[in-house]
Amino acid sequence: MRARLACLIVLLTGALGAANAQTKIGQGDYLVRAGGCMNCHTADPARPFAGGRPITTPFGNVFAPNITSDRETGIGAWTDAQFIRAMREGIGRNGERLYPAFPYTSYTLLSDADLLAMRAFLATVPPVRAVTPRNTLSFPFDQRWLMALWNLVNFSRGRFVPDASKSAEWNRGAYLVEGLGHCGECHTPRDWLGGLKRGERLAGATVAGWQAGNLTPDRIAGIGAWRDDELLRFLSTGAAPGRAYALGPMAEVVATSTQYLTPADLRATIAYLRTVPPIAVKDARAPASFGRAARVDVTSIDSEGARLYANACASCHGVTGEGGKVFPSLVHDGVTGALGTATTRNLVLVILRGVNRPTRDAHALMPAFAAEFTDEQIAVLSNYVTRHFGDPRATIDAKTVHSLRQ
Fold first, then answer.
1. Which tens digits make up the pLDDT trace of 192-226?
2. Is residue 400 packed enough to be buried (19+ CB in 10 Å), middle (13-18) or exposed (0-12)?
3. What whole-number distance in Å separates Cα of residue 343 and Cα of residue 338?
4. Residue 233 near residue 242, CB atoms below 8 Å
5. Which of 55, 96, 126, 127 is 20 to 30 Å from the Cα of 378, by its Cα?
6. Does residue 92 register a pLDDT over 90?
7. What are the residue boundaries of the Cytochrome c domain, all occurrences included (predicted)?
8. Could you tell me the CATH number of the domain that includes residue 363?
9. Is the pLDDT reported for residue 405 higher than 60?
10. Which residues are annotated as a binding site for heme c?
């Protein structure tokens, strides 16, 4: 009888342990998605997490490493302590300093439980043998030891400490925005050494040519005039008609990360962003204050721009720029210069590279025109679009287009 009871206890303990392990892996899967790990560590969609993707910086390219369970080229042989040290302190398995293209400066806030859950999930990712390419940083930025000095100025170690004066929802949002989601890494301007400008936190920045939006509650340049349901829709689908559409890196963030967040976590994110200090942008104007629906006129002074628009854009966005049920309107739209600054960078990059934003709601697709149009033609087309449908101050020349094309 005792033997049977002992066997039953062993079986129950084993089943409970297996269930707990699966729960931990499931939590890790969610956290890895929320942390945007897929975004940077996947160069080939057929080999997720195998690394090799270049992260563009002003100092050269940093290549994201292989974080599959491969023991030789991935992190399969890493200990939990080595994984946690890399995530929290920016120090690799062999003691090498990691570059802040990897957001350890934000991940330092993560809890032990969350890091170990992420580690547990990554241990289940099928191993892929893939050697990470060498970084192509210019001297002296290729000297890893200098990161110790950089960290003294730009890195504050420490776990997230909840603010007892705030709600649980606010604290969860702060943990997601400042830590796991590391929103400030893209949406905060950087100084000449690549450190975040703390006084302009979340005020928008340029990332690999793209203009990342102002996430502060400023009503003109930021999200202050957005309703909660518009922000919720943008984060879960990448589309907030009348406000903005997720493009470039943000489209990837939506596709691989934010669309998978629970409604509670999305609401917590929004609740926290509502409370950060608003930062205005000089000469910013409300989107509704410029642009209009206007029929294409190929006989006008902008005849070359009108012709290019009619041939390449009108079939989807309409002859008046108002779009339709499926395709977005260009009138008063963020991509046409309503991102708080009079810039047409995002518009040019969208024309060059197109859009590919798969979500559970819809798969947004737009063809790339880099191979079809010259730099001069893209400049003419972009200026036509912003002059007629967006902010007429947002202009660009062929030289800048060529730079963005690279």
1. 999 999 999 999 999 888 989 999 999 988 999 99
2. middle
3. 8
4. no
5. 55
6. yes
7. 23-126, 168-277, 300-389
8. 1.10.760.10
9. yes
10. 37, 40-41, 183, 186-187, 313, 316-317
- CA–CA dist 191, 207 (Å, integer): 13
Inter-axis angle of helices 375-389 and 398-405, to 10 degrees? Answer: 110
- Residue ranges of the binding site: 37, 40-41, 183, 186-187, 313, 316-317
Per DSSP, the three-state class of 124 is coil
Query: Token pair for residue 267?
Result: 């609401």
pTM of the complete model: 0.89
Give φ, ψ of 289 to 5 degrees: -85, -5
Distance separating alpha carbons of residues 114 and 120, to the nearest angstrom: 10
Parent domain of 61: 20-159
Question: Residue with structure tokens 């729960």?
Answer: 23
| Amino acid making up residue 281 | V
Higher-scoring residue by pLDDT: 21, 109 = 109
Q: Which two tokens stand for residue 387?
A: 């002059």
The model's pLDDT over 285-315, given as tens digits with 9 standing for 90+, comes to: 777 667 677 677 666 666 888 899 999 999 9
Q: How confident is the model at residue 400 (pLDDT cuts 50, 70, 90)?
A: very high
SS3 label, residue 277:
coil
Report in angstroms the alpha-carbon separations of 168 from 27, 154, 325: 19, 29, 39
Mean pLDDT (the chain, rounded): 89
In a domain, 233, yes or no: no
Final residue of a structural domain among 159, 190, 216: 159
CA angle 226–232–234, rounded 5-degree value = 80
pLDDT for the residue 34: 96
Q: What is the pLDDT of residues 28-64, one digit of tens each?
A: 999 999 999 999 999 999 999 999 999 989 999 999 9
Half-sphere exposure of 257 (CA within 13 A, CB side): 23
- Which of 275, 267, 260, 273 has the alpha carbon at shortest distance from 229? 267
356: tokens are 């590919």
List C-alpha distances in Å: 21 to 10, 18, 31, 186. 16, 5, 15, 34
Out of 110, 143, 159, a domain closes at: 159
> What dihedral angle (degrees, nearest 10) is formed by the CA atoms of 372, 378, 381, 387?
160
The DSSP secondary structure of 177-217, one letter per residue, reads IIIIS-THHHHS-B-TTS-B-GGGTTS-EEETTEEEPP-S-
Classify residue 244: in a domain, yes or no.
no
